[in-house]
User: Fold this.
Amino acid sequence: MKIDILTLFPEMYEKVFSQSIIKRAIEENKVEIEIHNFREYSKDPHRKVDDTPYGGGNGMVLTCQPIFDCVESIKTKDSKVILLTPDGIPYKQEMAYKLANEKHLIFICGHYEGFDERIRSICDFEISIGDYVLTGGELASMVITDSIVRLLPGVIEEGSHKNDSFNNNLLDYPTYTKPRVFRGMEVPEVLLSGDHKKIEEYRKEESIKKTQFRRPDLLKK
Ligand code: ADE
Assistant:
């Protein structure tokens, strides 16, 4: 898979994508991630990428030209162009699985007060990572990229994400490791029993109980 990210702040990605699982996925060619500073595509003599809004109002608005030109220079017939914006479709695990099946994703990160509405015309869809407003799409693109890369074949063991929270609309069951007792808190006896059927039943029950208590909205789906 190839992921291209259009941003005005490429340095934000350096640390995040050079650690842990994403780093390894890149090194093992499971994913190629390229960060593009769309300011470099600006035809303005001062490399301007924004302007004042028609009709008046606060702040600056990202202009079409640099973003259109940048997208057009990297887009192929296999690309899906995604705009990150708080008014997009709410991002869920189900969409992470769908995006993980794509060959090429292009993320456009908005910034400042907003972007020219016509930028939406070159996007296949728009995603929001939650009902709050970030200073830009950069963190959203990192969150989405992380959630997709871990699902790519061979990046982490398939068993590790089979039981992820939100698969089957259930939260994860509780897990424990050594020691058996820590500050008086004991590991549930069933997990020490070696009885795999019982352990599976216990985990399923705990998963349902936890979801009922913390996220009853998931069970209604
Ligand atoms: N840009 C600003 N806020 C955002 C959000 N909640 N999701 C995606 N992109 C954003």
Q: What stands out?
A: DSSP finds eight helices and ten strands in the chain. The mean pLDDT is 96.
